[in-house]
């Protein structure tokens, strides 16, 4: 089952600047992980229940907020690369769909402006910057602007290696846009160091979880987990949730597909905190597999970008709505009427 | 081993209207299940017995009737789409071959007319409609017309999702034809609701099994089972047989191939009721695998339609006869002279 | 590792009549088994021993005769289809190579004439014909002509199904040639029945093993075994050897590749009698895998025919010699200097 | 992740004489092992740790010498085929990179001259020649010239079989070059026997390990091990290290990929001696897999030759440096800051 035609990968490729397209679609290294992510979900098969009353199928969800769908929007950087309204479009789409949205640390819009278009909770993704005071200030701003959870990206001590292609040029992004969210925290002088200040701090450890929780008063979900023991280590360090991800294949190339990693993480966590997942989810049946295997929600990265690129807010909405509709349809055919009824026995 | 040349998939494609062809050949969603069904049987290999007296190989079968072959005709809708004589041609072919035929609830001919061309038993497939009195009346008619079993399709609370293709048009089917079997039960007025009345009832449960048995006095085989626990649940609710099927890949896309599901279901049922199977059976060796793994009979869906399309009754007959001949030939080479001698040790 | 270039499959295809080529290369049914036979050996990998003294590597073998190589010639019908000297060329090649040869029941030369070109033992392949007296007479003649073992083909109660191709014509073979070996046993009158008399008897059982042993005084190897329990059944019925084969994929299509079946059969037989194997062996490393897994010898079917077709006796010799040379070379690199040193630990 | 563009396989192919190219790139037999080596590493997936302080990632290594990287240079013959400075270029590159280099027994430069360009240890690869006194003299010279370990190639009692291609010609190598390292030990007369004298001795056994250790006073690493029991046999015979290799697929074709063999060998050796590995390592993530699975170092064969061919010493340096950089990057993303922190749990 593929996404709505008008917001497809092919449609996005046609409208995007080739360098932007390459930035969005590429993974890291040899593109092993990015290339296999979606296929890994399709290795699962369904074992439906039959003869259940499925006249009403609900996808409602409580997860650091109340949502109408477990199909969320993963954090991704710099949405004005895709549509003029940038993150405003994304946020409006998320709100319209009743979907959880995670705003990236790297946005082309101030988070307060983004928050303003959502009449309810949202989550804020955190990169701890080399100057931790900037991060501290930012997460406080996020809390004040209505964020109900933080998502600490744990798989990015530094940016994943991308082999030189010969033809790639820098992203068409002004400093002003690239720095929109953090500009207010930067020193007015000594500009030579700016990029260094806001670069990821490769030295952060699990202690960061407590620190963020304390600074913001918000639950901290750790993103980028692919093993059970790491999930437990984060939970013991205070994590309020675990996000199984290999960063869309953009960090350690060859990292396990999330479709393979999810069951181990769910088993290790034993329900102490919710587990969510992203990576290669492209349809309602992909989502059905993930949710049946124990994810509380799934997140779309590139598909939402495709939607933004092809049709701004409406495009992003179509993507989330369509995957939600596919999920609801598939749940009924599998004999389930609520997310609570999904369990691993539905998957082989 | 492929089907007889003159009734092949390619031959049918040539003669059928493209929309009808698409309707027949497509699955649901991303066509995962429809695409892998036949190949899943070919993953099995045979472990033949040798030096057995195989001068006479029989394929006789008792299964809610007496048949000369375990190669049956699965229920499919609207046969006048394929050949002018519609279900009359199919029924005549089944009778000529000594094969079990299942008449769909959705036919282009009144069931009584179809029954008239068969001098013996047949099975009737049931969709419970939103107005249950129509279904009740229909199954009583089927019993009166000689049906020896009901096949309750359990995997279709509603019709499987088919992504819009842009070019697909409605089937070339008049209301009169589409309603042939149920017209007599429809109210003469309030036509606006008709399609709603006869649509599947998404609310039916296993209680439907007892209800149908009581209304008709016939054994009820539940079709669309892919897991052992679901088979048991149906048996406990009164099912007289289990039909392993994913509806030709037309319902929940990504549902387990029946070739993979069959052994689990057979093991769970432990011989309490017969188990039959359909999906991707295209040759006598596919049938040999299924029967060895514990199916009492196998059913052909699309191949019979190809036969009807290319040559009406004769075409359908050629398909069933040829697969039966291939099965008989293969049984002998495997050292078996009757269906009772087939066992799982023949398959690896 | 492929065969010598001048005697390759491609070279044979060029010189042979297309109908003969089709007869040789095709399998039965959907060509599943014939298509996967060679590849199945290539799924094995070697675990060589190192630092062994391998200055002398021997391939000598005692197996119902004394041979210089375990690379034998499998029985195949009608060699005058491939080279004017027919089976005389094959036999001379076998003798020159010191290789065991199995003469088919279906030859274009009288077995006495074939035997005359071999100064030593050979094996005779048996199809039990509907008139058993013909078979009885033939095996006695074989014994008298120096055969040291019989090979009873157990997988052919009748000839495997070949789907009609539309273009295939009968083999270019006169009755005289086709009947060369049995003509002397046929009644002079009632010619209409001849082909029926010499057709395989589909009614033979394991009792045939004792009968043949008694008629000929020779050990009986049963050919066509793919399962351990069947091997044991034959051994208990008096078999002197077991030949793992699926008849080059020409009988039950989809029968297990011999590369997969061999280990089970070897394990079941527990050394009570020797086990040999054929099917898809195309190089010395294929042979190394088979011999390591417990085969006492391996047999080439089609490759010898390619050799005959391209260059008569010399071509057949090149094939057997080259595979033997490859085997000897590979044995040394695996750290083995005799067939006795090959064991399953060499294979993964 | 592929190698640096300027030193790639494709770049080397363009500059090398076709016969030399074929000599470098080919494997033995049917090229099964050479063809699958690299892909076998890519079947592994990573299970990274997150939220570790990875500001400093070190690749330092003690292993019969002190090195800055575990990416070593495997022994290969005749480097003047690739670059005019031959082994001098290779040695200088190894020293510049801080990488372990193994000098082949078959060089186009006297080992003393090679050793002179390295200000530190290096390893010497040993083929025991039919005249053992030549080998004895050579290993003593190696020790005197600063070698810190011997690498006894155990998988080459004779050179692996290469099927005739019809077009291949002898390597463009004068006798003088081919004999550079051993000329001083050859008798001045009786030249007809020279190649025989220096050919591998197919009769050597594990006793050679002790003999070499005694002659040279150096630890002896046995190269060409693919099974645990063979590793133990060598360790018990005095080996100071085990080198898992199938000789780049150039000896027994179909020998196990080293990526599959490594875990068994590491498990068997139980840390008694270090284990290293080569074969198909083409990137830092390939190296990460090998090192995580228990290798102390990994060695590059052909990639260094590609570097030499495209740009002499600088090309070889780029290859080793780039793979080291990729490894260091990947280690950090996997949460490890030193080789000691790599363990099998990082790999699935
Ligand atoms: C263009 C792009 C930018 C991204 N930026 C971020 C980011 O700023 N922070 C983050 O935690 N993840 C980021 N991600 C990773 C996504 O959150 C998510 O893990 C990934 O895209 C999911 O895989 P999918 O694209 O296959 O759905 C980015 C992904 C893409 C494709
Ligand atoms: C065109 C078409 C119409 C079908 N209609 C029905 C139906 O009315 N009722 C039903 O239970 N199954 C229906 N099926 C499913 C078949 O009974 C059967 O499960 C399936 O076709 C078997 O797979 P095969 O086509 O690969 O042999 C239909 C299948 C096709 C292809
Ligand atoms: C053209 C042809 C004719 C054959 N005729 C006989 C035969 O007469 N008797 C018999 O036992 N097997 C016969 N076989 C089977 C071979 O003995 C052998 O099992 C098979 O060819 C081995 O597989 P390979 O061709 O892949 O090496 C024949 C095979 C071929 C290809
Ligand atoms: C052209 C060539 C020459 C080689 N010569 C030697 C040699 O002289 N001694 C030796 O032990 N291994 C030799 N090898 C094998 C390498 O040491 C190493 O095992 C192999 O190349 C590793 O695989 P890779 O090429 O895939 O990295 C040679 C390999 C190649 C490609």
From TrEMBL, chains A, B, C, D:
- The organism's place on the tree of life at top rank: Bacteria
Q: Which GO terms describe its molecular function?
A: oxidoreductase activity
Identify the PROSITE patterns for this entry: FMN_HYDROXY_ACID_DH_1 (PS00557), FMN_HYDROXY_ACID_DH_2 (PS51349)
EC no. given is: 1.-.-.-
Q: Where is the FMN hydroxy acid dehydrogenase domain?
A: 1-348
Could you say which residues form the signal peptide? none
So which cofactors does this thing need?
FMN
Q: What is this protein called?
A: Alpha-hydroxy acid oxidase
Q: Which family does it belong to?
A: Belongs to the FMN-dependent alpha-hydroxy acid dehydrogenase family.
For this UniProt record, the keywords arranged alphabetically read as follows: Flavoprotein, FMN, Oxidoreductase
């Amino acid at each position: 089952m593929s996404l709505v035609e008008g917001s497809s990968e092919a449609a996005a490729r046609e409208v995007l600047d080739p360098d932007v397209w390459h930035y969005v679609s590429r993974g890291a290294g040899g593109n092993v992980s990015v290339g296999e992510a979606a296929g890994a979900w399709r290795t699962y098969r369904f074992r439906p229940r039959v003869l259940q009353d499925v006249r009403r199928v609900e996808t409602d969800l409580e997860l650091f907020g109340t949502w109408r769908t477990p199909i969320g929007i993963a954090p991704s950087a710099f949405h004005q690369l895709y549509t003029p309204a940038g993150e405003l479009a994304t946020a409006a789409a998320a709100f319209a769909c009743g979907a959880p949205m995670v705003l990236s640390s790297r946005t082309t819009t101030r988070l307060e402006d983004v928050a303003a278009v959502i009449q309810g909770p949202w989550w804020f993704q955190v990169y701890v910057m080399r100057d931790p005071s900037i991060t501290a200030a930012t997460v406080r701003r996020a809390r004040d602007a209505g964020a109900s959870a933080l998502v600490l990206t744990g798989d990015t001590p530094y940016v994943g290696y991308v082999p030189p292609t010969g033809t790639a040029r820098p992203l068409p992004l002004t400093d002003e846009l690239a720095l929109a969210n953090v500009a207010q925290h930067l020193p007015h002088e000594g500009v030579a160091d700016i990029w260094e200040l806001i670069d990821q701090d490769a030295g952060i450890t699990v202690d960061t979880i407590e620190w963020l929780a304390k600074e913001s008063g918000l639950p901290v979900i750790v993103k980028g987990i692919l093993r059970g023991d790491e999930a437990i280590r984060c939970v013991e360090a205070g994590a309020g949730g675990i996000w199984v991800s290999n960063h869309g294949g953009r960090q350690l190339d060859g990292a396990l597909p999330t479709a393979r990693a999810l069951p181990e993480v769910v088993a290790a966590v034993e329900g102490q905190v919710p587990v969510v997942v992203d990576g290669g989810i492209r349809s309602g049946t992909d989502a059905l597999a993930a949710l049946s295997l124990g994810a509380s929600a799934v997140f779309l990265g590139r598909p939402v970008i495709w939607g933004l690129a092809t049709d701004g807010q409406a495009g992003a909405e179509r993507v989330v709505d369509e995957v939600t509709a596919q999920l609801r349809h598939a749940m009924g055919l599998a004999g389930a009427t609520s997310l609570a009824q999904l369990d691993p026995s539905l998957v082989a």
